[in-house]
Write a structure and sequence with these properties.
alpha/beta, Rossmann fold, eight-stranded mixed beta sheet, 8 strands, about 50% helix, globular
């Protein structure tokens, strides 16, 4: 095990020496359950970031129910598996969207990385390092708890947990935070809460304060409130059209909410170690606590 860890460090050091020295903020968006609008938030947040001039890459990390491409209205021809199998380069699989963001279809690629040989791993690391010129990488993780979700969470600079006012969503958001804080106790995970589909600012405040207080009392962990997004018919109408709501109606309440959230994120400095190579090193070195 120690020999594998040493070899991984050597590979990462060799690749990092040649990778662009650029600070890339890496955000994992996750949730305790499905149906809370996590993917919608990820897609539209990426577009909101692009609108303020950031170079954004959106990665579909939901290996079971990948549907970022549905919201973007694109059909990916390739995914990470082609890079892992050395059939394609990262540049060849990245899709340009009409909304100013780039998109990578994850498929089951990430789950295969742990089984790569040294040569295959070094090739993949070099290809992944080509993403280092991005300003923001947003990863839409799967919903709920799985080893894959925790791996993304452990490697990201910031983790946004999405919930809604529904009691089951609130309970599952707390459960998600509990798992993160207990399974990844050796890591400082920067968790922030986003309340989606609210009917008023007061409702979001009540829900967020409730979750944050319980997390503080029972888990002794500080979770920040990132913001809220209004419930609005424009969201469902945009989904039916396979268009991001930020594009369909940029002045709608949900769009304005996301613009405010992006502004709030940008007012906080990314962690000093924010980079693609740092993310990949933590991702590959992930060990779930037993």
């Amino acid at each position: 095990m120690e020999e594998q860890a040493k070899e991984l460090r050597n590979i990462m050091n060799r690749v990092a020496e040649k990778a662009p020295k650029h600070k890339t903020r890496i955000i994992a968006i996750t949730s305790g359950k499905g149906g809370v609008g996590k993917t919608n938030i990820a897609v539209n947040m990426a577009i909101a970031y692009a609108k303020v001039g950031k170079k954004v890459i959106l990665i579909d990390g939901d290996l079971g129910m990948a549907n970022v491409n549905v919201l973007l209205g694109v059909v990916p021809q390739y995914n990470l598996m082609q890079v892992i199998n050395r059939q394609k380069t990262m540049k060849e699989i990245i899709l340009d969207s009409e909304y100013g963001i780039k998109f990578i279809a994850g498929a089951n690629g990430f789950s295969k990385i742990a089984n790569l040989s040294k040569e295959e791993l070094e090739y993949f690391a070099k290809e992944f390092a080509s993403l280092s010129d991005a300003d923001i990488i947003i990863i839409d993780t799967g919903a709920g708890i799985s080893n894959n979700v925790l791996q993304f969470v452990a490697a990201a600079d910031e983790v946004y947990v999405v919930t809604t006012p529904e009691p089951t969503a609130i309970t599952d958001a707390y459960g998600m935070i509990k798992i993160i804080t207990t399974e990844l106790v050796d890591r400082q995970i920067n968790i922030k809460l986003l309340v989606n589909k609210v009917h008023s600012a007061e409702e979001s405040k009540r829900i967020s304060e409730r979750i944050i207080t319980i997390v503080g009392q029972f888990l002794n962990y500080k979770v920040e409130f990132l913001g809220f997004v209004y419930d609005d018919p424009v969201v469902q109408a945009a989904v039916i059209r396979q268009k991001p709501f930020f594009v369909v109606n940029p002045t709608s309440k949900p769009s304005v909410c996301l613009s405010h959230i992006v502004g709030r994120i940008e007012n906080t400095a990314p962690v000093e170690s924010s980079s693609v190579m740092n993310f990949l090193g933590k991702f590959l070195g992930f060990k779930k606590n037993q």
